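Budget justification, computational time. The allocation requested in the original proposal was used primarily to generate structure tokens for proteins on the priority list. As evidence of use, we reproduce two of the resulting records. The first is shown immediately below.
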Amino acid sequence: MSLDAFQLNGKNALVTGSHRGLGAAIAVVLAKAGANVGCHGRDSAPGAACDEIRGVGRETFYFSADLADSKAYPALIEKTIAEFGSIDILVNNAGTIRRAPAAEYPAEYWDELIAVNLTAVFQLSQLAGRHMIEKGKGGKIVNIASLLSFQGGILVPAYAAAKGGVAQLTKALANEWASKGINVNAIAPGYMATDNTTALRNDPVRSKQILDRIPAARWGEPDDITGAAIFLCSSASDYVHGHVLAVDGGWLGR
């Protein structure tokens, strides 16, 4: 295999939740590999990722939307196609987390997390997949799962349920679309230094418990996820379907 298999020249991508954190790192590295990359976030103004994408000579745009609102899904896909002419790569990265004991877990938390972390993943994939099927040139869909796709977690029942669903949805879509040249896979990040883990990192007891179990002995950084993203978004992974790739510093092997 040539290293050219990891290049994305001529490809058009959308990365949800790319205002900051893991999504921003993924969006920028896809652009460095040659793709035009649309960015999305809940913030009204774009983050630094758009400037970095333009800085490497690729096209970009920023779309502000709350993915708890189902009206955002078709608008986001339509915007990508209008700007670039197609969507060849979709990275479903956007997500949120709410912590509370299961016995007192608010219904509004549950509804929000299932909508953002699971329903949005399905509906955006459905819309992008439909476009890819119609064009007949295949494509790549990468979902961001979690260690809690495999484990139950503590104080996060809705997040665990949604991320478990993401793993199964990844496999279900791969079963239907692999024969159409569409690769659907997922990345399951470990404990990463992002906004979602601020509370854990600020808790000296929980932070120590987590670090003591990670063989790599550190929290992951956004750049740690980018190699897996390039692989799964490029032709280097053309025979990889329905896989959930853990990038966790060795956590699951402990």
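The second record produced under the same allocation is shown here.
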Amino acid sequence: MIEVPVYDRQGTQVDTVSVDEDLLGGEVRPALLKQAYVMFHANRRQGSARTKGRGDVEGSTRKLYKQKGTGNARPGPRRTPVRKGGGHAFAKSRTREDWRQTMPKKMRRLANRNALLAKLVDGEVKCIVDLGFEKPSTKAFKDLMKSVGIDRTCLVALDPEDRNAALSARNIADCSTIRVDQLNAFELLNHRYLIIDKAGLEAFLDGSVWAKSEEAA
């Protein structure tokens, strides 16, 4: 069992949450995490890059000057690939590349849980009693981060109804917010720390957060 300390907003430990490693995969699985990370990263690629060939570039097809007698290299039109502003020799012509990858649902969920386990093992999960704010306050959220020792990039997992907390954190550099039911291996591994409230952590561990998400869908 991993004992996760629970802090109040002043950084004082007030409680603990016991986490069973078996619920999160038992051990950190680097190969699974890499596969999930590569999949999420590939699925973010737009895949619509195109370049213009010599036939797509605007300009005349007239020969720039006569073939012989000038002492210069033999010219072609200004749209040739060897000239500045000309077309690409091997232009990308496809309108969309498909980089999408897939993983079975059970593997994706195990990777998400395993990424959380990696954070817990390294002591990079900061569990707060309550992240509810009466009104948005960037300063108050910065003070909260400082009190629990956040000194690098941070991911804040919030309940969808915690609007004030999301507004408080969104303008802080190197701080990103995400819904608890959308926590994934890519975002967890892209940030050094995770801030989550006690209710959100327990919902993630017992799986109730996934049930709510599927009901809403």
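A brief technical remark on that second record: The helical segments are 30-43, 105-121, 138-147, 163-169, 185-190, 198-206, 208-216.
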